[in-house]
Specification:
This protein is of the alpha/beta class and 304 residues long. The chain has eleven helices and 13 strands. The protein has a seven-stranded parallel sheet, with helices on both faces. A two-stranded parallel ribbon has the order 6-13. It is globular, with a radius of gyration of 19 Å.
């Protein structure tokens, strides 16, 4: 299958592209720079020099593709996350970029569009299980992701197959956030904010990538949640991490420090979200190789 991938050099896009190529798919990958072109060629994909906001530059790639995986993001680093303007490029990729891709996909008869959303939009539900049928909280910082989901649903309404995969927080060897987490733990700090018994939805990056590939081949149109089998409470995560770095316990900073560090828009990250992956497993047969962070955190070997 010919597949057009945006964000092919990102944390999710790299393993997705590798898996697609390894299983015989031809990957057209969007490249916005000469450096990205080189990296894409090294992966074995075909670079498409273009811009999501200049649709003429990607028309041929979309025309020759059967599916689009819109994996591009522009997430600001932790030092800039508190500034709302730092999210403008990411918002534009989600809103305008998704709309442009869906328009082209409808024009050229593309059969499938896949977009990775976020599970953090669910309301705090304590110990209750959550899934794509659960109530959402339409926070301004997440509105661009809702807009992207609406475009995918527009694609489905036109008789095509649109799939939204709401992802848990990524962790794994390639994750910048994970490296920051381990670095802080070695200084005795657990960067898990919120109530001790609140659940934190996570997903091993390679398992998230496998979910995208499985969705391409098997998922019916719809919205699914991609998370570990066993969501863990924050005090459990801190305890496991403490053991890994050789400490009896780690200090979990109060949520107020998250507000100071990342701004009020980040406070949704303190919610308890015990999200279930059951619907996606039943639809595709996908199953995470790392069933919980209890195992995943032990698999990591990250240098400070």
């Amino acid at each position: 299958m010919n597949v057009f991938v945006t964000g092919a050099t990102g944390a999710l896009g790299r393993p997705v592209s590798r898996m697609l190529i390894d299983t015989g798919h031809h990957v057209f990958a969007l490249a916005r720079s000469s450096r990205n072109e080189l990296r894409i060629r090294e992966m074995g994909a075909e670079p498409v020099r273009g811009d999501l906001f200049e649709t003429s530059s990607v028309r041929n790639a979309v025309r020759n593709s059967e599916a689009i995986l819109h994996l591009a993001t522009h997430i600001p680093n932790s030092s800039q996350a508190a500034r709302r303007q730092s999210w403008r490029e990411n918002d534009r990729i989600r809103i305008e970029g998704t709309r442009n891709l869906v328009n082209l996909a409808l024009e050229f008869g593309v059969s499938t569009v896949i977009y990775p959303g976020v599970v953090f939009a669910y309301r705090d539900a304590g110990e209750q299980w959550l899934d794509s049928t659960s109530p959402l909280d339409r926070l301004p910082i997440l509105e661009s992701s809702f807009s992207a989901e609406a475009e995918v649903q527009r694609f489905t309404s036109a008789g095509r197959r649109g799939v939204v995969l709401r992802m848990g927080g990524f962790y794994g060897p390639a994750s910048v956030t994970t490296r920051e987490l381990y670095r802080a733990a070695r200084y005795g700090i657990a960067l898990f904010f919120g109530p001790a018994k609140a659940y934190q939805p996570l997903i091993w990056i390679e398992d998230a990538a496998l979910a995208v590939v499985d969705a391409l081949s098997r998922a019916p149109a719809g919205i699914y949640d991609i998370v570990d089998d066993e969501p863990m409470q924050r005090h459990e995560l801190a305890s496991v991490l403490a053991g890994i770095v050789g400490r009896k316990r780690l200090w979990r900073p109060p949520a107020l420090l998250l507000r100071i560090w990342a701004g009020k828009n980040a406070m949704f990250l303190t919610r308890s979200q015990r999200v279930s992956n059951r619907r996606f497993k039943e639809a595709t047969g996908w199953s995470p190789t790392v069933d919980s962070a209890r195992l995943g955190m032990k698999l990591l070997a990250i240098e400070p």
